[in-house]
Design brief:
heterodimer; A: 121 residues; alpha+beta; Arc Repressor Mutant, subunit A; 54% helix; globular; B: 264 residues; mainly alpha; 11 helices
């Protein structure tokens, strides 16, 4: 998927990835790639300004820790971040459902099949 | 100096971190933290690539390619747009603080001059012009402004002293306006990029240095007049010197506070 298209939803995706548990930047990008079956490819460095921006907005909190012998900044979702994620997910469901209806796809059809590289748009 | 292996050229990760370091903006702590995060990320990516069978240089190249350009990490398209705005704001704040403090100091010099005028008279505050440098018309104008005075020189000294006090008062009022603008803008421009566009205490340090130089110059001039002209006209440089020294003291204390805030 083109990174420009992904950027508009990056905050929601990062919050979602971190809702499954805390993680450092590399873990976040790895989980994002795995959970999208490799469809979400974006320059990995772009994740950091987004993480920092979400932390400044108090949607994430971070702490430094040593993991696997390296000093890492571990991000976790805050209660405000969980609320923001729930709201954004709801908006996304409404939007994607509307798009599906316009395209004549069955309701929920866009969410039943996992998104994968090469899947028809 | 012994060259460490990690300093050797051709290490794509080290090269990337060097480029990132000179591109990042923000406080020293933010820069260190982002650099540490990105380095850990790149080392993980290199380890993953090597575990998948790549040689180290290829794994490094792949890790850097996947990370994308350094401007992606800094979160801006070019390295100039935000810093230039932040720098312009910070320079404006610096100019407002130094200009305002300088003008208020001149206003303060006016107050000192009033005290000197009351204690020692017009001739101590300002020196008369050389006789050939003014005309009868000048004399008539000065005398017209001082109806009770018969001497042209006395009227000239009183006129010049009045001018100095008026100009000092105007400068002081302008300075207060400039300082009010400074504090208003400082409250408005509290974003991190503006606050860190110049090192902490830059305005205070520059202002202290300028005020100290002005004080030394004015005191030197006053002493010279005391010795060569028996003090006639020394009042102006004395009053300006005292005000400049006071401004230097106030700005030095502000500098100390700014540096303490930074180190806290």
């Amino acid at each position: 998927m083109r990174s420009e298209r992904l950027k508009g939803h990056l905050d929601m995706l990062l919050l979602s990835v971190l809702s499954r548990g805390p993680g450092h930047g590399y873990e976040v990008i790895t989980r994002l790639r795995e959970r999208s079956d490799g469809a979400f490819e974006l320059p990995e460095g772009t994740v950091y300004p987004a993480l920092h921006r979400l932390e400044e907005a108090s949607l994430l909190a971070s702490a430094w820790d040593v993991v696997s012998g390296r000093r890492r900044r571990i991000y976790r979702l805050t209660p405000a971040g969980a609320a923001a994620l729930a709201e954004q997910a709801e908006q996304w469901r409404d939007f994607s459902g509307s798009v599906a209806r316009v395209l004549g796809m069955p309701a929920g059809g866009m969410t039943r099949r996992p998104l994968s590289r090469g899947a028809p748009a | 100096m012994t060259r460490h292996a990690a300093d050797a050229p051709g290490d794509a990760v080290e090269d990337y971190l060097d480029r990132l370091l000179v591109t990042l903006s923000g406080s020293p702590r933010q820069v260190r933290h982002t650099l540490a995060e990105v380095e850990a990320h790149l080392r993980d990516a290199v380890a993953e690539g090597m575990a998948a069978g790549l040689a180290e240089p290829q794994a490094q190249a792949q890790a850097v390619r996947r990370m994308g350009p350094v401007t992606g990490v800094t979160g801006r398209r070019t390295g100039l747009a935000r810093p230039s705005l932040a720098l312009a704001r910070r320079v404006t704040l610096t100019a407002a603080l130094i200009g305002g403090a300088g003008l208020v100091a001149i206003g303060g010099a006016g107050l000192v001059a009033r005290a000197l005028l009351a204690a020692k008279g017009d001739a101590f505050l300002t020196a008369p012009w050389p006789q050939a440098s003014y005309t009868r018309a000048d004399c008539a104008r000065w005398l017209a402004g001082r109806p009770g005075t018969r001497s042209c020189v006395t009227a000239m000294l009183a006129d010049h002293a009045g001018d100095f006090l008026l100009q000092a008062t105007a400068a002081g009022l302008l300075g207060l306006l400039a300082l009010a603008g400074y504090f208003a803008l400082r409250r408005r421009w509290r974003d991190r990029a503006t606050l860190t566009a110049l090192p902490a205490g830059t305005a205070e340090a520059l202002g202290t240095a300028l005020a100290a130089v002005a004080a030394v110059a004015c005191f030197g001039m006053a002493l010279d007049i005391e010795m060569t002209q028996r003090g006639v006209g020394a009042g102006e440089p004395w009053s300006l010197g005292v005000a400049a020294a006071a401004a230097a003291g106030v700005l030095a204390m502000a500098l100390r506070r700014a540096l303490r805030r930074t180190s806290a």
